[in-house]
Each structure stands twice: as structure tokens, then as C-alpha cells.
Amino acid sequence: MKVKTILVSQPEPKIENSPYFDLTEKHKVKIDFRPFIHVEGVSSKEVRQDKIDLKNFTAIILTSRNAVDHFFRVAEEMRFKVPDTMRYFCQSEAVAYYLQKYVVYRKRKIYVGKRTFSELIPLIKKYKDESFLLPTTDKVKPEIPELLDGLKIKWTQGTFYKTVISDLSDLENVTYDILVFFSPSGIDSLLHNYPNFKQNDTRIAVFGNTTIKAVEALGLRVDIAAPTPETPSMTMALAKYIKEVNKK
């Protein structure tokens, strides 16, 4: 079946040159964006109840822009002035760049990984005597605590924000040829909003092995998967699939 409509379970890109817009133009498909999940901050009171005192830490591990925002939000709510001596370990360049929203980049001790959390580990290992805080969501990839425990360092995980299922009830009577997911939480949201969901001719596109496993565990069919050597991005995987089915 040809593809005419796609729903991406993320916010609409804010950049003008997003590859999704190229996809729309080149293949004449309609793409809608709708976050299936959203983030809500945890109050500073709840963080304190978890016995987290910000002054006890000398280094912060930041895995996402959400982690950056909510660490500084909680610090402000606690009236904690983050010292200039604080070390920041950022999972990627994108996270490190975003950190500039809160600190003067060139005056801080910032260490940047390449992309994955495992690539950040060698940098953390060099500073084993620091006391690390990992401000994170309530849903953390199991490999993160496993890798940190393996370093035998002093570290604490704090839930500073939570992943919450969005209300999608207004989409109940809307159908799409392809649904695009980037996390198991997105799949959870689909079935929470539509417990009687039947895939039928709807194609499901997923990014990442954990998301693929989550889809298959629910007995649903994965039609488009990324990343692969041939299609490292979701837009490339979608373009390849659409080109094949729409030419028939």
C-alpha cells in the first residue's frame, strides 16, 4: 500500500532545513508531529525527600537537554548557587552546547563524549575521586547505572523529571499510513491511549533496538527499522521505504 500520511511521535522540528520537510516535498507525503510522551519536572521537595543535597556533589553527569534544564531548575528552587568549580560531563556535543544556556562555557570544566553513554565512561574514569550526580528521568536505560557501578566511583542517581504519557484522545478517529516511534515509552503511550489498537495495514517505524523489542513484545509488526548501515537516520529509512512502496 502506498504511503500518503505519516505521524511522528515527537514535537515538530524547529529548524527550517529538517530532513522531514525534505521528505514531505520530495515524496509528496503529509507528515504530522505529535509528542506521545512529555516531560514533567519533579519538585525540589521531592528531590530532597530522596536525600539529595546538591552541595555534596563535585561533578554532574548530563545525558540530555532535559537533564540540563531540570538540574538548574531544581538548583534554583533550592537556592543552591552552583559553584564555578563544578565539573560537567556531557554525553554529547549537543548537550554540552545546550549547557551554555546556564553557564559561561569557556570558564567551566566541561568534558564531552561523542554520542553514546559508554563513550563518556573513559572521561568519567579519569576523575574517579569526584562525587558524581546523575540528574535523570524516572526511566533510565539499564546500561547507565551498570556502567557507572563498574567504575567503582561515588555516584548518585536523582530523579529530577518524569516521562509522562500524553493525552491523544483527539486523534481517535484519525488514521495514518505510518506511525513513527523513538522509544518504548512512545509505544506504551499508544496502547495506553488506544488499548484496543489493531495494527492492520498501519506501518510502524521504529528507531533503536530497545524500541524494536518493545514493539515486538506487544505482538506488533515492525515495518521500518533504523538505524542500519544503509539508513542511519529515521528520515533516510522512511525515504527508502516510501520510494519502494509508492513506485508500485
In a nutshell, what does this entry contain?
It contains 9 helices and 11 strands.
Would you identify the regions where 5 or more consecutive residues have pLDDT less than 50? none
Number of domains: 2
Cα-based radius of gyration, to the nearest Å: 20 Å
The largest β sheet comes out as:
6 strands, mixed
- On the 0-100 scale, what is the average pLDDT? 94
With strands numbered from the N-terminus, the spatial order across the biggest sheet is 3-8-7-4-5-6
Task: State the CATH architecture of the largest domain.
Answer: 3-Layer(aba) Sandwich
By oligomeric state, this entry counts as single chain
Helix content: 25-40%
Query: Tell me, what is the CATH class of the largest domain?
Result: Alpha Beta
Structural class: alpha/beta
User: How many β strands by DSSP?
Assistant: 11
- The fold-level CATH name of the largest domain is Rossmann fold
Order of helices and strands: EHEEHEHEHEHEHEEHEHEH
